[in-house]
Amino acid sequence: MPVNMVRCVDVGSVYVDIQPSPKTDVLVRIYIVANDGYFSCVTVVKQRMQVFNSPYKSCIDCIRSIHHSEGIWAFYRSYGTQLTMNVPFVSLHFVIYESAQDFLNPSRQYNPLSHVISGAAAGSVAAAATTPLDVCKTLLNTQAAHATGTIGTNAGFIVNGLMQAFATVYHCRGVRGYFSGVTARVVFQMPATAISWTVYEFFKFAITHYSHHDASSSTAIPVCFLD
C-alpha cells in the first residue's frame, strides 16, 4: 500500500498543455528520464512484495534486503525496458484519446462522459499493446526462480536487459507468455486513465472558465459539471 501511494505522486504531471519550445522539450525529456529512474526503483519494491510467498515484511525491509544481497543495480535492471515501454504507451495513449475525442466530442467542449470513455479506451489499448514489454519488465524486477532456473544449467542465472528478458519469456512460455496478465493490466489501466483524463479536463475547463471573468465576478460554473 505505501509503495502504491508513492507511485501515485509521480505519474501524469508532465502530460499537460505546454507551449512547444526547444527549452520545454528538453525539460520534458529530462523529467521523463529522471521519473523513470525513480519509477523503476519503486516498481521493483512493489513487485517483489506482491509475488507469492514474499519474504519481505515491509518496504524498508525489502529495500535493505535487495541492496544487501543484489546491490544497487537490482533496482535498475528494468530501467531501459521502462524507458522503451513509455514510447509506445504514451504515443498510443494520446493518439487513441485524441481520436476518440474527435469522434465523441468534435467541438472539444467539457463533456465528462466523453472524457471518461476516451480515457478508458486510450488506457486499455495502450496497456494491451505494451503488455509484452511489461511482462519483460516484471521478469527483470522479480527474477522469479521458476522462470530463470530453467535457462541453462546455472541455477543462479540472472536475466539482464530487454533482449535477454524477451528470449527468457519465449523459452519458458512461448508467444502466449508475452501476454500473461493482459486482462489484469487492462482492467487496472482503464479506470486509472479515465479518472486522470476526466480530472485533467475538469481543471482545464475550470481554470479557463474563470480566467475570462473578473476576480469579483460571482458567475458560477455551469450545471454541465453535474452531467
What would you note in describing this structure?
It is a single chain. The chain has helices at residues 2-10, 22-50, 59-70, 79-104, 112-129, 131-142, 145-148, 162-173, 182-211. With 227 residues, it is mainly alpha-helical. The chain folds into two domains: 1-76, no CATH class; 80-208, no CATH class. Helix 4 (79-104) packs antiparallel against helix 6 (131-142). The chain contains nine helices and no strands. The two termini are 33 Å apart.
Q: Can I get a quick summary?
A:
Helices cover about 65% and strands about 0% of the residues. It has about 230 residues and is mainly alpha-helical. It has 2 domains: about 1-75, no CATH class; about 80-210, no CATH class.
Write the layout of secondary structure elements.
Blueprint: H1 2-10, H2 22-50, H3 59-70, H4 79-104, H5 112-129, H6 131-142, H7 145-148, H8 162-173, H9 182-211
Primary descriptors:
227 residues; mainly alpha; 9 helices; 67% helix; disordered N terminus; disordered C terminus
Mean pLDDT: 80
What percent of the residues sit in helical stretches (DSSP H or I)?
Answer: 55-70%
> What is the string of helix and strand elements?
HHHHHHHHH
Structural Rg: 21 Å
Count of helical segments? 9
Strand content: under 5%
Instruction: Tell me the distance between the termini.
Output: 33 Å
